[in-house]
Write a structure and sequence with these properties.
The complex is a heterodimer of chains A (about 110) and B (about 280).
Chain A: H1 3-36, H2 49-54, H3 58-86, H4 90-111
Chain B: H1 3-23, H2 28-39, H3 43-68, H4 73-93, H5 99-119, H6 127-132, E1 141-145, E2 150-154, H7 159-176, H8 180-191, H9 196-220, H10 226-249, H11 252-274
Antiparallel strand pairs in B: 1-2
Helix pairs in contact in B: 1-2, 1-3, 1-9, 1-10, 2-3, 3-9, 3-10, 4-7, 4-9, 5-8, 5-11, 7-8, 8-9
Classes of the chains: A mainly alpha (about 110), B mainly alpha (about 280).
Amino acid sequence: MPPQKTLCSVVQPILRWGMVLSLVLMFFGLTLGIFTGAEQTSVVPLERIPSQLLELDPAAFLTLGIVLLIATPLARVFGALCVFIKERDRKFVLVSLVVLLSVTLAVILGAA
Amino acid sequence: METLVLLLIALLCVSAGAIGALMGIGGGLIIIPLLTLGFGVPMQEAIGASLIGVIATSTGAASKYVKQGLTNVRLALFLEMSTTVGSIIGALIAVYTNQTVLFLMFSILLVYAGYTMLRRTEVLFSPEQAEAAGQIVDLSCQYVDARNSCEVSYGVKGLKKGLAYSSVAGMLSGLLGVGGGLVKVPVMNVCMCVPLKAAAATSNFMIGVTALTGAIIFYGHGLLNAYLCGAVALGTFAGAYVGTMLMAKYSASDLRKWFSVLLFIVAVTMVLKAFGLWGGA
């Protein structure tokens, strides 16, 4: 398979599944919220998501959808990195690592 | 927030997603004023929801564009190096700069980019030419234009220049919170000879990573309104889908004209913003 095709065959499913899963979760969360008239509107912290999902809290479903959505672009950089490592494309392994590192740096600086 | 308001926001965000997917921009330019001016949402909540909307536009459109070969994944990663570093620098120096002057300078830059795109016609740089130029990395790519089923193979020119200009694009988005895509598309199209449709798809793809850092920070601080984000994301997802359909319908030269018009409109809103007359400068 030509390099462009291999890359797409890895990146595309990541994007598609990220989209579908977050779409379903957010739609469910919104519908549930509208019917139950929940009060909490802000996002749920990561560690509380599982327990609040079990309580059928709409905000937890929405938050999980949002988290998956945020994780999708990051996952596709990881996916591309794996393809480049497998193909021994050193230059692009470096490129992907620089992108991941600068995203991490931006988050650390922004949180401080 | 009331159900009807959320529904209306989702519906209006369809346009932001469609324009974002078609033009390769984030859509924050539309979402933020829509929420603040139209629905009285506080600025911080609006920015948070807009970041989520931008990621939704990028992911939704890219899942189609990557399949069609319109997104040049290597080029995207290559330029993401400098946009992310640029946005960090921009955010760090934002505190020390005069926003009014920046907005005015940015609007001049947009008018210049729009004028260049209107005046010049698209030049194709072939993969062979790119190979002969002996660049540091090979970014050549091909796609099938859904409008006329023609296969387009292209090489990418001026990598160093592109890298430098995209760091400026990143810096501007870090400084002003807008404008990554508006600069990246003309840079790719005019300076790097990437066909407009591929440039828009690639820029749209890149924006997901740019918005990601902001979104993580907002989430960490609990600044996202879950319902608002959900409504905006659902609307922009649908819009992104519409945008990809429109992309297949129109010719690159039409899109190029619209992009210039978009640049002029944004330039005007930036001037308004500089004087505090638009969506909270």
